[in-house]
Amino acid sequence: MSGYGGGPPSGWEDPYGGGSQGWDPGGAYGPQYGAGQGYPPPGYGYGYGPPGVPHRAPSNGSTIAALVCNSIAVVLCCNIVAIPGIITAAIALGRNNTDPRSARKLTIWSWSLFAAGVVIGIILIVIYALLAAAADPDYDSSGGI
Description:
Helices cover 46% and strands 0% of the residues. It is mostly helical. The longest helix is centred in the C-terminal third of the chain and has 36 residues, at 100-135. The mean pLDDT is 76.
């Protein structure tokens, strides 16, 4: 017995209780489709298999946090770089349910703009402190009175 066609060798029994006419006709897994019952079998909708893994809605917590942080950066620090961060976070929040991949990229851009604004703010504060220290005529670096 080789290939398709023919039956099993004589004396062979199906360990699962099926017959030799094909895959499990009326064996351990019940009758085949359409055998004495309406098509499709109960429990399955027409043209659909069993249900798959349930879909989880994407989370928007990171997007909301980016929106809030960029908004605070604009209000407290007059950070102009954070304004595009607010815009990208708002667009990402709108796209979160319809296009999660695009929303994720926009959220990353929003966080990147926030980080760039913070770095620029720190650099400006350091430059201001250095200029203020250098411009003070009463500053004596010798430590004397």
